[in-house]
Structures are given as structure tokens and as C-alpha cells.
Amino acid sequence: MVGKTIAKVDAGHREQLPNGHQTELIVIHFTDGSALAIDTGSNAQNVCSRIPNLKPSDFSVDFMREWY
Questions:
Q1: N or C terminus: fewer CB in 10 A for the chain?
Q2: Taking the domains of the chain in order of start, what are their residue ranges?
Q3: What is the mean pLDDT of the segment spanning 14-32?
């Protein structure tokens, strides 16, 4: 991202995937037409396979953003 100029930033939830949880997404758009998407990843399915009655959709992930 060094040397690039940010045109806009989109933040919100992406489309929910089958057998997955709703996840947050940040997309940084640059003036040169490129974009960087920052998505969440988790091992929710791995945990759910070991614990009865727990579903990936029971999980939630947040991005905590702070400027210094």
C-alpha cells in the first residue's frame, strides 16, 4: 500500500456462505483501480465438529480499528 492513494473504504458484512457464519469485510479502493480486501478467517467449522449443537453461525468476528 506504500505510495498508493486511497480513493474510498467500504466496510460491512459479506454474503454469508453455506455452512458458514456471516463475516465482516473491509475493502480499500485505490485511485489506480486496485483494491485490497481484508476478510475474516476462522476455524469455527473445526471447533463445531467437536462440540455437539454448536454451529459456525453461532460465531461472530469483529475488526477493532483504532487510529494512533
A1: C
A2: 6-58
A3: 79
